[in-house]
Design brief:
Elements lengths: L3 E6 L3 E7 L4 E5 L6 E3 L4 E7 L4 E9 L16 E8 L2
Parallel strand pairs: 1-7
Antiparallel strand pairs: 2-5, 3-4, 3-6, 6-7
């Protein structure tokens, strides 16, 4: 799973559809958003990009003992970048 690079302007609406073959959590750092994705289902994550900057996006498989955990206890998996620019 890869989220790639998402580049938007301040106040733009960001909407991504996420699928996974196992239970996964999706969370863009800097935003108070976390979504769970069930295996073989599609979850939609939508929010207003109202904080400018460069943010890491992570997705982690729940219960994956082979992945590393960050300071918040999330297991690190797929990553990407969210770039929110001033208008």
């Amino acid at each position: 799973m890869s989220f790639g690079k998402i580049s938007v302007s301040d106040s733009d609406r960001v909407e991504r559809q996420i699928t996974s073959d196992r239970p996964t959590e999706f969370y863009p750092h800097g935003y108070d958003i976390e979504r769970e994705v069930e295996p073989d289902e599609t979850a939609t994550v939508a929010f207003e990009a109202n904080i400018t900057g460069l943010f890491e996006i992570e997705g982690s498989a729940k219960g994956d003992s082979h992945s590393h955990t960050d300071e918040n206890g999330h297991s690190r998996g797929a990553t990407g970048t969210l770039i929110v620019k001033l208008r």
